[in-house]
Amino acid sequence: MANVANCKKCGALFLQTSNRIEVCDKCFEEQNKLLSEINTFVIMYPEEHIALEDILKKFNLTIDEFESFFSAGKFVKIAQKVTMKCAKCGKIVPIAGKTNMLCSACAKKLQNEI
Question: Nearest CA to 38 among 23, 21, 22, 57?
Fold first, then answer.
């Protein structure tokens, strides 16, 4: 039996399903449209790479929202084209080659220090 919950995006009541437990149908559709727009924008971007900050600004996203989508596998097609700065060394890396906010080299170095 499905549970009733408040949508984490808009607050509306909705019936949770096995594949949708956080957002209502309306917000889910809006989210899918946004994800499609982001993927299309990045794929059609004329340069070889695009900075994550540019995507966040254009689509009015927070880094947490982007991270959530990325962790859920929503940006597999564009992961090699989107770049970000490593929080530790500042190196520009594709988001596909990072661990959280660190490049793979800094993540490995940090893991060895622990």
Answer: 57
